[in-house]
Amino acid sequence: MKVTEHLQQSQGKCLFSFEILPPLKGQDISHIHETIENLLEFEPAFIDVTSHREEFVYKKRENGLLEKVTTRKRPGTVGICASIQHKYKIDTVPHILCGGFTKEETEYALIDLNFLGIDNVLVLRGDPIRSEGVFRPEPHGHAYAIDLLRQVSALNRGEYLHEEVQNERPTNFCIGVAGYPEKHYEAPNLKTDIGYLKAKVDAGAEYIVTQMFFDNVRYFAFVDRCRAGGIEVPIIPGIKPITGLKQLRMIPHFFHVDFPDALTDAAERCTSDAEMRELGVQWCIEQCKELIAAGVPCLHFYSMGKSEAVKEVALAVY
Fold first, then answer.
1. What pTM was computed for the model?
2. How far is CA 209 from CA 123, 166, 179, 255, 317, in A?
3. Does domain 3-52+73-317 have CATH number 3.20.20.220?
């Protein structure tokens, strides 16, 4: 079932969903099963599975020179999605990236997903390679998420990359995109960013899931500006409970979001990870209660591969 169909059939209930990371290369899927089973009681409508591009590592050879080697630390998005739908009968949303993939590789991945009966995708540009700092598209790949979105929309019309394809059967993907209540870090301002988002909706995006945020005022203002800008699709808030002191530095740095003053002031009084975790979970609970009261269609949790804090929040609000 498509994400939009879940939202339409919810009868006003705020749905529960979450995101998981594929295991590191060389690990098995058992941890993912444990994460999902720990959250099954909340009847997740869908589960997102992230995708990861290649990274570069440098290996020292016997002659003293460094060799640049390409590696993917977290493969397996398509296989994990298929496994989850087979084992748990829960719809999955694989992330489809521009970064690290050619148009041809993207088409093959989408065809595989279609064969597996996976009819949701979240379309993203993806992050730059960490060692480079600036996003560079793959040769014969997409530079922007909207171009990738147009490729998925074209497949939904039965338009493949090569003209020699005969008897083209259209796919039927429900396409989601990301939204940024505090703007994408590369956008000059929020107005411009929402303009880009409107273009994605016009190109076929059917719902939006936001970057994590910790101040509901930012989310409500973002929704209002989207609606004023002609964006009418569902906007699902992305939620993350803070679980340790290191995240006070890590989250703003990697995700380009701000903490509200009240949260920062309280966090500065925490002297241990346990205290910070208690504060983070309680803050998230209050966030979620306010969002549910405001009538959001779904709460989408960024679990970062750990489900215990998400479970504590869900027990308090569902």
1. 0.92
2. 11, 36, 6, 15, 20
3. yes
